[in-house]
Structure formats: C-alpha cells, structure tokens
Amino acid sequence: MKKSWVVLLLGAAQTLAWGGSYYLPAILAPAMARDTGLATSTVFVAFSCAMLIAAVLGPRVGAAIDRHGGRGVLALSNLVFALGLALLATAHGPVLVFAGWLAMGVAMGMGLYDAAFAALARLYGKEARGAITGITLIAGFASTLGWPLTSAMQAAWDWRGACLGWIAIHLLLALPLNLLLPRAGAREVVAPKPMPSAAVRQTRRSAILMAAIFSVSSFTAAALGAHLPALLLAVGATPAAAVLAGALLGPAQVGARVLEFTLLRKAHPLLSAKLAQVSHPVAAVLLLVFGAPAAMVFAVIHGAGNGILTIVRGTLPLAVFGAAGYGARQGMIVAPGRFLAALAPAVFGFFVEGYGASALWLTIGLSMAAFIGLYWLRVQPESEEAPR
C-alpha cells in the first residue's frame, strides 16, 4: 500500500479517535455531571485520570507496536473506546463515570498520536517523518469535526445518545480504517546495536532531556488550553474577542503543520522544535506588553507553536535515536508530559487565580528553559535526516 494511502487512512482514523475521546468532555461534561449527580469538576477529574492511565500505558503500548506493528493495537483501541463509551452511557453515579473514563484512558493510550507515530515508525523506519506530519495535519481538524458532531448528537439524543453515536463511529468507521492499514510483519525489527557505556549514558541523558522538554510543552499546551479565555480577559479583552482569539488556535495549528510539511520538511526536526518551542514565549511577551490588542496575535503564534510541537514529539525522537525500539522509547519519553498535562489545568489555575495574566511568566520561563535545553541535544547531521 502506498504511503499516501496509509496517511489518509490513519489520519482519518486519528481524527475520529480524538473527536470521540479527548474532545468529548468539553461538550458532554456538564450534562453528564447533572444526570449522574456529580459536580462538573468531578467529571473532569475522571477525565484527568484517563489521561494518567494513558501515560502509564504508553511504554507498554509502544513496546507492543515495536514487536507486532500498530494495526492490531490501533484496531483494538476502537473496541476499548466503545467499551468506555458504553460504560459512560449507562452511568448513573460516580462508579461507572470513573470506570468509563478509565476504560477511555486505556483506549487513548492505545489509539491516539503516540501509538500512531509508533505504528508509522514500525512501517517506515526513519522515513516516517513525512507520514507523521501528514496524519497530524489531517487530525488537526478533530475538534473542528468532533465538537459540532458531539453537540448535534447531544441536541438530538441527549449526552447518553451522543456516547452511543460515538460507539457506532468507532466500530463502523474508525475500526475498519485501522484494519485497512498494512501489516508490519514483513518488515524486520532491527535491534539496537550494542553501544559503548559512554554512548549508553549519552543516549540516556538525551532521552531524559527530551522528556523534560516535551513535559514543558505538554504542561504549557494543557494549561493554556484550559485558561486561555481567562488570561485574555485578564489583559482587557472583551468576551467576544477572547472567544474569537481562541477560535484561531485550531487554524493556526493546522497552518503551522502545513509549513512543517512543506518548507521545513527537509530541515532537521530539531530546527522545527526550536521554532515551535520559542513561539509561546514570544507570543506571551507580546500579550503582556501590548494587552488586549495582541490577543489574536498571541493565539496565532501560540497555536502555531503547539501545532508543530505535536509533530516534533514524534519526529525528533526518531531523528535522534532511530527507529529501533522507537515505540517503547517514545512511550517513556512522552509519559512525564502526559502526567503534567493532566495536572496542568489545576496547577496553572492557582497561578491565574493569584496573579492573573502575570501567571504567563511561569510558562514563559519554563518554555525558555526547554528552548535552551534543545541546544544540549546531540543529533545527527541534517543531511542524514532529509527524506529520501
């Protein structure tokens, strides 16, 4: 099967996977909380638990994809998504709400970007960079599709019916898309070559450093995703302007991914990482200096950085460490970031409550530290990473 077809199939499956999991609480949480006798915040706590479960499972899922390929794992994730949604649809109290979201967390660990990246690395080795960019470009529209679709199903059938609708989508659309992916069995998995102890230590240091850098990115993205409207209001933006600026995040992310897919595709992923990592500090300083008039500029620059960082999370480890053992290593590298992403809305909320827009100095400082950290990574020459 041609790589372009694999990108289309997996990109479509990822769009449905994200739309039917990660983007559900924003629409369904209030009604779910009301009908199950919970506070809305409690439903989001259950969702945070799902993200933590996904983080814990990441290395094991990656190792399984390294051994067997991603087709089966991704297809199984659709069945687990359906199970989690079924538990939620039948929930009348906290037990099934938490059980449903924990099952969703298992499915998210098996079926979202990191598993898809590992599947592509298993299929194409170091040539997977373009495919990774391609699926994130397609799935960048997950919220654009998911939120209106979930809202429409909720309006027609209530939130329980919306869960049942997403079960049908996972089983009738996403599952067949994943099953159409090529098997990876014909491609031999090459074990990493034995390295001198000094090289092993350097590899370990690079992996730890990369995990710290990605953790900062995950924390910042999750924190701003939860508190962007409040921050924009704090600098004097009107509610309408805050909503409009927030709406620019999605298009900015997709636009930046197009840039990475075209102009930056032959550059080393480290260059993309540096450009993306510095985007948030630049945008945040502009917002703090100029206030409300810079709200839309902030949203576009910050969103563009997030869009490229999603790609870099898959392509930079591939460029630095190679394809052998990619899935397990990738799971270990991104796990701390997933934990921080689950905690970020609550932690950053305390700073916003206490300091208003000045809370951005926290994310500015963290992002600049991560940007500097990128200069400490040892990488191969750019010419070796250009697609062939």
UniProtKB/TrEMBL annotation:
Q: Matching PROSITE patterns, A to Z? A: MFS
Q: What keywords tag this UniProt record?
A: Cell membrane, Membrane, Transmembrane, Transmembrane helix
Its subcellular locations are: Cell membrane
Instruction: List membrane-spanning regions.
Output: 43-61, 73-92, 98-121, 128-147, 167-186, 207-228, 240-259, 280-301, 307-326, 333-352, 358-377
Has the keyword Translocase been applied to this entry?
Answer: no
User: Pfam families of this UniProt entry?
Assistant: MFS_1 (PF07690)
Q: Which residues form the Major facilitator superfamily (MFS) profile domain?
A: 6-382
Record carries keyword Cell membrane = yes
- Supply the SUPFAM superfamilies for this chain: MFS general substrate transporter (SSF103473)
Judging by the UniProt lineage, the source's domain of life is Bacteria
Question: How does the record classify its membrane topology?
Answer: Multi-pass membrane protein
The name of this protein is MFS transporter
What high-level taxonomic lineage is stated for the organism?
A: Bacteria, Pseudomonadati, Pseudomonadota, Alphaproteobacteria, Acetobacterales
